[in-house]
Amino acid sequence: MHSGFFNQLLLISQFELKRFFATRKGLLSLLTFAVVWYVILRYPLRFAADMLIKGQGFIEGSSFFDFIGLSSLHHWAIPEFAVYWHFALFIFPMLSINLAADQSCSDRERGTLRFIALRSSRDSIFFGRFLGVMLIQMLLISMTALATLALVVYRDATLFSAALANLLAIVVNVALAILPFTAMMAVLSAKVKSVRQATLWAILIWTFLAAIISGLAHYLPVLDFFKCLIPGYQIADLTKLSEWKTLQLAYIPILQALVLLGLGRWLMVRQTL
């Protein structure tokens, strides 16, 4: 790969950042995201964290959090990050399906993708858009994690140094969790011609793939290995881990993303623009 490829890659990823942070549509999405997360941080996260701090969720070996499937919350040293970890693991992958849907399909629909391809390689377009969308999502993850850190420091400023390690662990792991979802949308965006189609196909494929593989694995345990094909299948196991132990499963989303990106690149090269 020559320097021209990396220059094109950076320019296209920068364009994605500008499209999100400097356009009316992008700013509206950012405002909606901020309002939703404000509500989450202000109410359910603070409520659950307060219960953990006061020990109200734990009674004689059983707890309210065991009942709702969040028994691993007490494994975290800082309650706010324990609750944030569970919210982030489920919200950001779902957000990724919507946010990463328009990597190239709308340009193909308008006919501008052919014009862009005259000045950039298809590889730089495909990977540049993917990189740009990943950077946007990492910024959003970091913003919400920093907001959670602010809540922790507001409660007890002496926790700041300990909270930084938790903050980094969460940002890294949530970013890894959304990798295969973003790559899946890159594949679909390289194939279909509209954002709506990409989103619908993602939901259908993800839902039916999970249902079919899980059903087959239930009757034929030898097929349980194929659950690795389902983006995000490790998330349920991630919720049982805490802090840097969560990196034990990092290889799963990385491998999934590499396979999906390889497929997407193959489609992009052969697809009619």
From TrEMBL:
GO cellular component, one term: plasma membrane
Keyword line: Membrane, Transmembrane, Transmembrane helix
TM region(s), chain numbering: 26-45, 83-101, 130-154, 160-188, 200-220, 249-268
A Pfam family matched in the record: ABC2_membrane_2
Annotated GO MF terms: ABC-type transporter activity
Source domain of life: Bacteria
Keyword hit for Membrane: yes
Keyword Transport included in the entry's annotation: no
This protein's name: ABC-2 family transporter protein
Natural source organism: Crenothrix polyspora
